[in-house]
């Protein structure tokens, strides 16, 4: 049976995905090129440094590690400026209702985000206590599509991968969940999240019962 739901943060609980995109776009523009929304799909769920590497390759640039650290820090500063104004109003539609259904169903929850800013964002939106386990970018060595962030979440909750459902908006995140041996709900477009076991536009379009029926 399913015993735990594991949630990505950016683009699932809160729409920070747009802020990551805006900050990366600003960086790319300063470097003399642009990144499209379509290209940005590849960046979703991918760690800060891996994202920068993809962006630099896209712009045909090779830079020193020192310069890359500087650019990553700059992007994060812009990103933090964007998220500093967030409040609980920024929680995505349907999240509160879905979480109350999750509690009623007696399921455990974990956050599985490769973002080092995840605790700060949870604090800002008033969801710091909403999860039984929190795995963020400071607790992992490999970002998505590696399954580490989700397998660690399952381990902390003391459940097996087969007892978990992952909720993801990113191609890399869906792959991470699948590689971890979990049922994956993709939130977004079925044309993009082709590896997901079930796809819906957002948590607002799903009930816990629907997910459990499909997953077990
Ligand atoms: C999430 C986002 C990515 C972001 C990554 C690292 O997975 O989807 O866009 O690059 O976290 O976030 P951070 O806040 O540590 O730079
Ligand atoms: Mg995401």
From TrEMBL:
Task: Kindly list the positions annotated as binding Mg(2+).
Answer: 8, 10, 168-169
Q: Give the record's cofactor note, including how many are bound.
A: Binds 2 magnesium ions per subunit.
Q: Which GO terms describe its molecular function?
A: beta-phosphoglucomutase activity; magnesium ion binding
Which amino acids does the record list as binding substrate? 8-10, 24, 43-48, 51, 75, 113-117, 144
Q: Which InterPro entries match?
A: B-phosphoglucomutase_hydrolase (IPR010976), Beta-PGM (IPR010972), Beta-PGM-like (IPR051600), HAD-like_sf (IPR036412), HAD-SF_hydro_IA (IPR006439), HAD_sf (IPR023214), PGP-like_dom2 (IPR023198)
**Top-level division of the source organism's lineage:** Bacteria
* Enzyme Commission code(s) on record: 5.4.2.6
Reaction(s) catalyzed by this protein? beta-D-glucose 1-phosphate = beta-D-glucose 6-phosphate
- Site (Important for catalytic activity and assists the phosphoryl transfer reaction to Asp8 by balancing charge and orienting the reacting groups): which residue positions? 113, 144
Q: What is this protein called?
A: Beta-phosphoglucomutase
Could you tell me which species this protein originates from? Spirosoma endophyticum
Q: Which residues catalyse the reaction?
A: 8, 10
Similarity section: Belongs to the HAD-like hydrolase superfamily. CbbY/CbbZ/Gph/YieH family.
* Keyword list, A-Z: Carbohydrate metabolism, Isomerase, Magnesium, Metal-binding, Phosphoprotein
Example GO biological process term?
carbohydrate metabolic process
């Amino acid at each position: 049976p399913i015993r735990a739901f594991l949630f990505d943060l950016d683009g699932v609980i809160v729409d920070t995905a747009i802020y990551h995109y805006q900050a990366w776009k600003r960086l790319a523009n300063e470097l003399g090129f642009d990144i499209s929304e379509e290209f940005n799909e590849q960046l979703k769920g991918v760690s800060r440094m891996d994202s920068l590497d993809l962006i630099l390759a896209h712009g045909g640039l090779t830079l020193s590690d020192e310069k890359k650290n500087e650019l990553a820090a700059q992007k994060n500063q812009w990103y933090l400026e964007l998220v500093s104004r967030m409040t609980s109003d920024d929680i995505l539609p349907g999240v509160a209702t879905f979480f109350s259904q999750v509690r009623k169903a007696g399921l455990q929850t974990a956050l599985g985000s490769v973002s080092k800013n995840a605790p700060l964002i949870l604090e800002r939106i008033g969801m710091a206590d909403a999860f039984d386990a929190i795995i963020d970018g400071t607790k992992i060595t490999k970002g998505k599509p590696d399954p580490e962030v989700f397998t660690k979440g399952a381990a902390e909750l003391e459940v097996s991968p087969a007892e978990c459902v992952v909720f993801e908006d990113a191609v890399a995140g869906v792959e991470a969940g699948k590689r971890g041996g979990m049922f994956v709900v993709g939130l977004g477009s079925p044309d993009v999240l082709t590896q997901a076991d079930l796809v819906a536009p957002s948590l607002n379009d799903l009930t816990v019962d629907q997910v459990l029926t499909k997953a077990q």
